[in-house]
Design a protein that fits this description.
globular; 3 domains; 7-stranded mixed beta sheet; DNA-binding
DNA sequence: TCAGACAACGCGAATTTGAC
DNA sequence: GTCAAATTCGCGTTGTCTGA
């Protein structure tokens, strides 16, 4: 655990004590990497999970991890936005942040503090260089195609849909950040689980808006009759999750369409509607998803589901991770 | 000939400035 | 205080050089 994590724990607990007047004790256990906190007045002991940055996507990942935690889990983070607090309340996740916001529901104890703000400088301080849109495209290609990192730069660029200069910069950055040791000698991508987590967190903000093409209305019959292959299109999000798991009935349909987007909209007589049930995205990769002819790659389905923040979608994302994604992340 | 590296440039987003 | 124009900044692409 780094010093920033320790600082976050200390600050979050101090603020919780100030806001509630409760007496709180912290103690390390195991290899000193894990912390428990005890709220003395209520004789409650929480197992803490520290995640400095949180958004909807990361909250989904954390929520799935917390299901495996024994005891009472407590998430500690730097800042929970008001929008994120709503998702936390819906999912009844125990959270405290360094700004003094908190949501803890362990009957008879119930704490809900919101509205506290973090100072701007600290909120946006980045630990590592972030990945931008083109870098995320490159990383997506690498994660979906194990071993691709050892291919020529121009081939990677071709598959990722970016310029070859971008691939070079991205691979060097991956090397610098410890994901691609020995890049010069065609080393293997490592730490893929963490890299996937970072990709999933950044995808909704950095990549998805860039390829958003429009929102439309579509009915069940149109969906049944849609020939996705004709448009080089692939179902994503909830629609793809339904096909992969049979666990989910889609509420919003997401589709990634190749070059024929205009034709896709015209031929299907789609009407634009900002609240419509069909989200049309531009396809941003140039490789085949072997085994998934009608849907996007499970990694993208996973990211789309987590980005919604919906409980059922988060559960489905976990199923897809275990069933379809784990093997891509395994070091090989 | 091909792949990697790098500099220069274009473009769009963000920020600043100034007029009203 | 608001809005538009100007400026700045940085990401991503292109073109080209170098070495194997």
């Amino acid at each position: 655990m780094g010093h920033r994590e320790r600082d976050a724990i200390d600050k979050a607990i101090r603020n919780l004590e100030t806001e509630t007047g409760l007496k709180i004790r912290t103690f390390a256990f195991g290899d000193q990497e894990d912390f428990k906190i005890q709220i003395a007045d209520h004789d409650l002991i929480f197992n803490t999970e520290v995640r400095l940055f949180l958004n909807k996507a990361r909250l989904g990942i954390v929520l799935n991890n917390l299901r495996n935690v024994t005891g009472i889990p407590l998430l500690i983070t730097e800042y929970v936005t008001p929008e994120l607090m709503k998702v936390i309340e819906e999912n009844e996740i125990n959270v405290i942040d360094t700004a003094g916001n908190a949501y803890i529901k362990v009957p008879p104890l119930f704490i809900k503090i919101k509205g506290n703000k973090l100072d701007e400088v600290r909120r946006f301080r980045a630990v590592r260089r972030p990945f931008y849109a083109a870098a995320l495209q490159t990383i997506y290609a690498l994660l979906c195609n194990p071993g691709l990192e050892r291919a020529p730069i121009r081939e990677i660029a071709d598959l990722a849909g970016v310029a070859h200069g971008t691939v070079h910069i991205t691979l060097k950055e991956l090397e610098k950040q410890g994901y691609l040791p020995d890049y010069e000698n065609k080393g293997k991508l490592i730490n893929k689980e963490e890299l996937l987590e970072r990709w999933v967190i950044l995808y909704p903000d950095k990549l998805k808006p860039k390829f958003f093409a429009g929102r439309y209305n579509i009915n069940e019959e149109q969906i049944r009759n849609l020939d996705v292959n004709f448009y080089d299109a692939h179902w994503g999000g909830e629609a793809a999750a339904e096909k992969m798991t049979n666990y989910l009935r889609p509420y919003i349909y997401t589709i990634y369409v190749g070059e024929r987007q205009g034709e896709f909209v015209l031929r299907n007589r789609l009407r634009r509607d900002t609240q419509g049930n069909l989200v049309v995205m531009k396809k941003f990769w140039n490789f085949k998803h072997f085994g998934y002819p009608e849907t996007t790659h499970p990694i993208l389905v996973y990211a789309d589901l987590l980005a919604t923040g919906d409980t059922r979608n988060i559960e489905t994302a976990k199923l897809i991770y275990e069933k379809e994604i784990a093997r891509y992340i395994a070091e090989n």
